[in-house]
Amino acid sequence: MYFIPVPNVKVRTRPHASQSQHAGRMRPINKREAGVWHQTKSLLYKNLLIKWRTKQQSLQELILPLLLLGLLILISTLNPHVYYGGIGTMELESENYLPIKGLGYTPITNVTNHIMEEVAQELHMQDRLEMFANEEDLENASLYEPLGYAGVVFRDNMSYRLRFPYNQLPLPSDYTESIASCFSNSVNCRAANYWYSGFVRLQTLIDAAIIQMQTKRSVWREMDVRVVMMGQPGSVEVQKFPHALISIYLVLAFTPFVSFLIVNVAAEKERRLKDTMTMMGLYDIGLLVSEGGAQNHAV
Asked: What is the mean pLDDT of residues 2-30?
């Protein structure tokens, strides 16, 4: 008996017109696209669960900034800011008595002798006026009166330099000194030492003697000097050390958040990568060896 093979024949039928119309109208009625709010809510719930399961990390993120904040408050309490009340404009009283015990000058010429004799006469220091051949001898003589000796070094007939003890005048580069002494008492203010040490008066008398010598006219009364200390409103002197710690605190306070965020994101990506490798039939040891080799190469 023989079987004759018969080819497969597919019979195609045209669908009914009413069936085609119903098929075109069919749409999924239960499908709902997830919005941004639903995704955010789900991810937020997931992150809250992770925070609840990793309580140690959560406590570190909360406690470490609070400890740093308490330390910052303690340091600020131990180093409070200093408030100074405002002062009004005041005129410094004139000092008739100069704290100068000796007065010397150099070099010795007819012009310098005439100028310094006029100055010594106005200061009533004729018996304490000394002349020196050079500046080195003047400095050596000042060592015997280190707190009350003033010197005048003439460069020419019109210019000169005043030499005073180092502790009686502020340095020209002294810009950062506290103004507390100026608020409490003008006598202890470093800026007023030019007036109370006799520096201004000695300079005024020398200038008047030079002008009189050049113009042949007396200007002693016209060279009267009045010094006024300008007032200023109240101010707060900020301590630099606690102020600098604030910048360090702002960095350290967010360190736990950033570090744990990086660790969690890296762990999540590594877990997903391991799942993908497992689905592909690969081994986890390959991932670990490759990451270790990359780190060693970078180091």
From this structure: 47
Which amino acid appears at position 71 of this protein?
L
Whole-angstrom Cα distance, residue 109 to residue 158?
13
Which amino acid is located at 236 in the chain? V
What does residue 43 show for φ and ψ, rounded to 5 degrees? -65, -35
Residue 136 has pLDDT above 80, yes or no: yes
Residues 168, 202: Cα–Cα separation, whole Å:
14
Query: Is the preceding peptide bond at 165 cis, omega within 30 degrees of 0?
Result: no
pTM value is 0.50
Beta-ladder partners of 248: none
pLDDT digits (tens, 9 = 90+) for 45-97: 877 787 777 777 777 777 877 887 888 788 777 777 777 777 777 777 776 66
The rounded distance, in Å, linking the Cα atoms of 166 and 199 is: 12
Beta bridge mates, 106: 153
Q: What would the two tokens of residue 165 be?
A: 């003890």
Q: What does the block give as tokens for 132?
A: 């020196």
Locate 185 and state its tokens. 């008492």
Backbone angles phi, psi at 212, to 5 degrees: -65, -35
Could you read off the pLDDT of 170-225 as tens digits, one per residue?
666 555 455 555 655 555 677 777 888 888 888 889 999 999 888 888 887 777 77
- SS3 annotation, the chain: CCCCCCCCCCCCCCCCHHHHHHHHHCCCCCCCCCCHHHHHHHHHHHHHHHHHHCHHHHHHHHHHHHHHHHHHHHHHHHCCCEEECCECCEECCCCCCCCCCEEEEECCCHHHHHHHHHHHHHHCCHHHEEECCCHHHHHHHHCCCCCCEEEEEECCCCCEEEECCCCCCCCCCCCCCCCHHHHHCCCCCHHHHHHHCCHHHHHHHHHHHHHHHHHCCCCCCCCCCCCEECCECCEEECCHHHHHHHHHHHHHHCHHHHHHHHHHHHHHHHHHHHHHHHHCCCCHHHHHHHHHHHHHHHC
